[in-house]
Design brief:
This is Catalase. GO terms for molecular function: catalase activity; heme binding; metal ion binding. Its cofactor is heme. Among the domains are: 267 residues, Catalase HpII,  Chain A, domain 1; 92 residues, Catalase, four-helical domain (Hemocyanin, N-terminal domain, Up-down Bundle), CATH 1.20.1370.20; 147 residues, Class I glutamine amidotransferase (GATase) domain (Rossmann fold). The radius of gyration is 29 Å and the shape is globular. The chain is α/β, with parallel strands linked by helices and 752 residues long. Bound molecules: CIS-heme D hydroxychlorin gamma-spirolactone. CIS-heme D hydroxychlorin gamma-spirolactone binds next to strand 2, strand 3, strand 4 and helix 13. CIS-heme D hydroxychlorin gamma-spirolactone (HDD) binds next to strand 2, strand 3, strand 4 and helix 13.
Length: 752
């Protein structure tokens, strides 16, 4: 008693008991593949050179870290403590009355630990629960002062830090990334005049015109309330029931059934502000504006069969892709474009710009690039940043204002309101990720979890006791655009809101043949999951007003008679200005034809032709691709020339759907192994079915044949065969990979 060492004879250092320190050391002979990191808790991207400054950012001073540095916690070389800072001597054993006796109530260390754990979870977002975020910056190209006084657009080259969160809408927090769904594209700009949140999606329109319908829409698409199925899927009765009775959703359904709902990468999708907003300049003049984000890598998507399989192979597919690209220093980048138009122009349009189910076609009002957004740092902590970030459509800054879009009106209310439940009170703006860089001074006080310590006795305005401070900023502050309103109070819609189909027709007509086919296939799939025939019929009758061709294809796919077209709310709609808009096809933005960050597999097994492996790997990596050697198992394989290659992935843990293309080198023993491996055959079948680029060298064509890939392979676009990996072959392979997909070889049903 009194001798501490005698009181701790029972394995107080559990880790040592298990040889933990040894377990961390590389095993003898192990090849260390990942670059070893200093255990500072920082991510690699923080250490990457910043594009703008060209030098390595010192820890904590990455251009986008800013005020977050103050709260970053790092336990390197520090002892374990309680939340009160008391050092903990034993984190393995609770305090007991005797080794076999009862645990004691006075064990405050145990109780604090368990209590905190019990409260670790917070409610997930009511929609957009699953998301992935990153830090970055926005850079303004040219001053936009003629149009807006928003400070982030004030100067050429001005940098504003941002945090961006991508999301799916319907699935729960732990659901999959590759659901057929809209993707959220929410940007928080930490401007020097306060935070501006542009809370958009990867589709420029919405399902409904009025926020009054939002809870109904969400209740319909979420898992059905009686059995909580299906997870992260719109393919069920209640969703299609609702939209079939809501013809204003027809345009959005086109987008949602298109390949845009299954992006290959967050880095390869567009973003849109959706609503018409206002820009307001220093003189108080205003124009309408639509915001567009265009990805530098181009717009690319998955195909449905692939998305379904990826959701099993890697439910974190898009999250991982974003994380890895940033860690590798391949910073995702978008260009911000704006469409601006006057109120008079808007009045003349065939559609209403306050209707969020309508776009302003680019052919009518061009998109002008005004800046770029680069994501260059992964969060330090998912919960603290990506989960606790609170976006809000009401967060605007001087120079940006709302319009009377009735959907936007509901959003201005909803987001702050939802955070109060989700983040536990009204002070969520003080969470580090949400706190503006601009100073905050007001007379709001108290509430749960208040961080600021307000000094003085004055918390009201006007006051004389604090010299009138904080004082009203007058015209230096946010001044709402004085839009005149003299109207009767009514519940109703403007006249042009009644036209539901012209832009659905426009969207469908603007797609390539394979995109049209995918839209029809998606309707077929989703509606085939609907159990009530009348719902299917209503959707097809609705589609007849958008495209007779589409309606007929879907009806045929569902084995049903073509029902009569749904009666139109507006029988004699205005003539649309634009009937085909090439910009609406994903193919309009192919990227630069390069293969940067694309994941390419090289299949290996014992006896593989080593020189081909190295030639291919070097050339692909030089072109910026991410190369993985994929074997029947991980680990070393002997090459035909007696050397070794080390597979860092197995066909089992990284199936074909996770790669953008595949090369199979020659080597008779290796090919025989792969031919006899059902997984390897399936790997090739998926690569073929999903229209990816395939290269088979020499005898590797046997694997194609074994996979049932047609002997007339030579005629198949994107399917390359060659004797060896010479310069011409490799260049051709890289060129074909740059096309991303070869939809010309797609058939329905799939031939392979
Ligand atoms: Fe919303 C989240 C985008 C209509 C109510 N919404 C949320 C997020 C995005 C959008 C990207 C996730 C933000 C994040 O990453 O944290 N929402 C949109 C777009 C809409 C839209 C582009 C139509 C143009 N939303 C909309 C309406 C309402 C809401 C009409 C309600 C009247 N949205 C919410 C919400 C959420 C949300 C309930 C859930 C979590 C959150 O706000 O923070 O308030």
């Amino acid at each position: 008693v009194g001798d501490m060492s005698a009181a701790m004879p029972y394995n107080p250092t559990k880790a040592a008991e298990h040889g933990y320190e040894n377990a961390l050391a590389p095993q003898p002979g192990a090849v260390v593949q990942a670059p070893s990191r200093e255990a500072t808790g920082s991510t690699l991207s923080e250490k990457n050179r910043t594009e703008k400054y060209g030098e390595e950012a010192a820890a904590g001073v990455n251009a986008t870290i800013g005020s977050l540095q103050r709260v970053r916690a790092d336990a390197q070389d520090q002892p374990l403590t309680t939340n009160q800072g008391v050092k903990i001597s034993d984190n393995q054993n609770s305090l007991k009355a005797g080794l076999r006796g009862p645990a004691l109530l006075k064990d405050f260390i145990l109780r604090e630990k368990i209590t905190h754990f019990d409260h670790e979870r917070i409610p997930e977002r009511v929609v957009h629960a699953r998301g992935s975020g990153a830090h970055g910056y926005f850079e303004c190209y040219e001053p936009l002062t003629d149009l807006t006084r928003a400070s982030l657009f004030a100067e050429k080259g001005k940098i504003t830090p941002v945090f961006l969160r991508f999301s799916t809408v319907a699935g729960e927090r732990g659901s999959k990334d590759t659901a057929r769904d809209v993707r959220g594209f929410a940007v928080k700009f930490y401007t020097d005049e306060g935070n501006w949140d542009l809370v958009g999606n990867n589709m420029p329109v919405f399902f409904i015109q009025d926020a009054m319908k939002f809870p109904d829409l969400v209740h319909a698409v979420k898992p059905e309330p009686h059995h909580a199925m299906p997870q992260a899927a719109s393919a069920h009765d209640t969703y299609w029931d609702f939209v079939s009775l809501t013809p204003e959703s027809t345009h959005m359904l086109m987008w949602q059934m298109s390949d845009r709902a299954i992006p290959r990468s967050f880095r390869m999708m567009q973003g849109f502000g959706v609503h018409t907003f206002r820009l307001v300049n220093e003189r108080g003049q205003s124009v309408f504006v639509k915001f567009h984000w265009n990805p530098v890598l181009g717009t690319h998507s998955l195909v449905w069969d692939e998305a379904v399989k990826i959701s099993g192979a890697d439910p974190d597919f898009n999250r991982r892709d974003l994380w890895e690209a940033i860690e590798a220093g391949d910073y995702p980048e978008w260009e911000l474009g704006i469409q601006t138009f006057t109120e008079e122009q808007a009045d003349a349009f065939s559609f209403d710009v306050l209707d969020a189910t309508k776009i302003v076609p680019e052919e009518l009002v061009p998109v002008v690039p005004v800046g770029r957004l680069v994501l260059n740092r992964n969060p330090d902590n998912f919960f603290a940043e990506t989960e606790q970030v609170a976006f809000c459509a009401a967060h605007v800054v001087p120079g940006i204002d709302f319009t009377n879009d009735p959907l936007l009106a509901g959003r201005i209310h909803s987001y702050i309101d939802t955070q109060i439940t989700r983040l536990g009170g009204p002070n969520f703006h003080e969470l580090p990720i949400n706190a503006p860089l601009a100073p905050v001074q007001n007379n709001q006080r108290d509430g749960m979890h208040r961080q600021a310590i307000h000094r003085g006795k004055v918390a009201y305005e006007p006051n004389s006791l604090a010299g009138g401070c904080p004082f009203q900023a007058g015209t230096a502050g946010f001044v709402s655009f004085p839009e005149p309103v003299v109207q009767d109070e009514v519940r109703g819609k403007p006249e042009k809101f009644a036209e539901h189909y012209a832009q659905a027709t426009l969207f469908y007509a603007s797609q390539t043949d394979s995109e049209k086919k995918h839209i029809a296939d998606a309707f077929r799939f989703e509606l085939s999951k609907v159990t009530v025939p009348a719902i299917r019929q209503r959707i097809v009758s609705m589609l007849r007003n958008a495209s007779e061709e589409l309606a007929a294809t879907v009806a045929q796919g569902l084995g049903m008679e073509l029902p009569p077209a749904m009666p139109r709310a507006m029988p004699d709609p205005p003539k649309p200005e634009v009937t085909v808009s090439p910009a609406l096809s994903l193919t309009a933005r192919p990227g630069d034809g390069g293969i940067r960050t694309r994941k390419i597999a090289i299949l290996v097994a014992d006896g593989i032709d080593g020189p081909s492996v190295w030639t291919l790997a070097d050339a692909l990596q030089a072109a910026g691709a991410v190369v993985r050697l994929v074997g029947p198992r991980i680990g070393p394989f002997e090459t035909s020339d007696g050397k070794w290659v080390d597979a860092d992935a197995s066909i089992e843990n990284q199936p074909g759907v996770l790669f953008d293309g595949v090369a199979v080198p020659d080597g008779s023993e290796a090919i025989a192994t792969l031919v006899s491996d059902g997984r390897a055959r399936e790997f090739m079948q998926d690569q073929f079915r999903h229209c990816k680029t395939i290269l088979a060298l020499g005898g590797a064509t046997a694997l194609l044949e074994a996979a049932g890939i047609a002997a007339d392979a030579q005629d198949q676009p994107g399917l390359l065969t060659a004797d060896k990996a010479d310069g011409g072959t490799v260049a051709e392979f890289i060129k074909e990979l740059g096309r991303h997909r070869h939809f010309a070889r797609e058939t329905d049903p799939p031939a392979v």
